[in-house]
Write a structure and sequence with these properties.
single chain, two-stranded antiparallel sheet, 2 helices, 35% helix
């Protein structure tokens, strides 16, 4: 499965579960180059964001334990690959 297809499917699965149990997700951003598998979700309500953290933190997805928390507004999760030239 191509990488873009994987992330589209992953976003769909996350949205479906979170929106059915918590509230509407405004925006989902995946940091595809980050080796930690970082995803940032934006909600229309801080209460929904808090409920999402409670629901998803510590759960397992594809054999990996999720860590969910409020973004500090500063941490840059983008990873720039270094050139091998």
């Amino acid at each position: 499965m191509p990488v873009d297809s994987f992330f589209k499917e992953l976003e769909g699965e996350l949205r479906a579960e979170i929106e059915s149990k918590v509230g509407q997700v405004g925006k989902a951003e995946f940091f595809k180059e980050n080796p930690l598998g970082v995803c940032k979700l934006r909600f229309f309500s801080s209460l929904d964001a808090e409920a999402c953290i409670q629901l998803m933190n510590g759960r397992f997805f594809d054999g990996r334990k999720l860590k969910c928390y409020f973004w500090d507004g500063k941490t840059d999760f983008k990873v720039v690959k270094e050139s091998t030239d």
